[in-house]
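Can't attach files on this board, so I'm pasting raw text. These are the components:
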Amino acid sequence: MGETKLSVNGKSLRVNAPAEESLLSVLRNRLDLTGTKYGCGEGQCGACTVLMNGRATRSCLTPVSAAVGAKIVTIEGLEQDGKLSPVQEAFVEEGAFQCGYCTAGMIMSATSLLNETHDPSEEQIVAGMDGNVCRCGTYPRIVQAVRLASRLAGGRS
Ligand code: FES
Ligand code: FES
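---
Top answer:
Structure tokens for the assembled complex are below.
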């Protein structure tokens, strides 16, 4: 157990956690950032997705020691000055969730996708979101939401 310094949602934080503890566990259990969900714990569902340096990352498979020095963003960090991010706004607008358990991970993966590809085709959206599972089957609305988010963020699709 040692002190680990993390950058989460623009804040510099210190946690006392074993180096091998998962980033997901640290976020949820030590930092009370419970928007990030535990699904499978094995890298298969995407519920635990956060951004590390802008890229979608499975926090269940990431030891906290591997997150040192990275800019971590969770679902709680997307809103800026009380305004939802374009992806959050689009998911609300399109009603792209039912139970909502997968939604934070979906939004983080979509944010990562749009960071890399500003105007993705439907095929690119489907491929980019492929690692995120929605047990409620809201995939068509999720794809619609990512398309809308691309427009809201200034893409052309
Ligand atoms: S909980 Fe991390 S991928 Fe399922
Ligand atoms: S909305 Fe229920 S798992 Fe996706």
